[in-house]
Amino acid sequence: MAVYDLEEQEQISELKAWWARYGNFVTAIAVAAALASVGWQGWQYYKNRQAGEAGALYFALEQAMINGDAQKTREAAGQLIEKFPSTAYAEMGALASAGVQVEKGDAKNARAQLEWLLAKGSDPALKDIARLRLAALLLDEGAFDQALAQLANAPAPALKARFEDLRGDVLAASGKPAEARSAYQAALDALAADAADGGETLREVIRVKQQALEG
């Protein structure tokens, strides 16, 4: 049996007293830390697995786009939205599929996917593009006020010229030539401010539309 001197006995007594008072708390902290570590590792595994499955679906969507298969593109986008709505793949898939549906004349499905992206998406750049495309669809439908509402909030600077150009189209179609000219001028100003844009074709198209209204 071990023999302790007086000082060691006092230290042991203090340790026992401390453990009696705080032992349960320390044990609980240790268990919580262990559970948190296991939970974190599980969450990381889940996220990685989700990303992998979503990536595979997005690849299938891209292949369908390359093949010009609007139905398979739409189905792949639908699965991304249903199963992996919080991933970037779902947002990109909705936007890509909407473009294919428009090309195939299916404005209804294109609009549904754009509206989902605007309601549930988190990427500001993708949402700006979705607003622009949705406004173009609404213009085609003659829903001028709704189209203008989509264009009301300022987009990222890189898209300002295209927003103003489309706003000019909507205003011109709704019988407001003076406001349309102002929107076209704002688009030209935005292009002039962005020296790296290189949008000469867009500039010329906007100038022609602006001059047509002046005529």
UniProtKB/TrEMBL annotation:
Residues 16-214 form the Ancillary SecYEG translocon subunit/Cell division coordinator CpoB TPR domain. It is a single-pass type II membrane protein. The chain crosses the membrane at residues 20-40. Gene3D superfamilies: Tetratricopeptide repeat domain. It is found in: Cell membrane. Coiled coil: none annotated. Keywords: Cell membrane, Chaperone, Membrane, Transmembrane, Transmembrane helix. InterPro entries: SecYEG/CpoB_TPR, TPR-like_helical_dom_sf, YfgM. Its main location: membrane. Belongs to the YfgM family. This is Ancillary SecYEG translocon subunit.
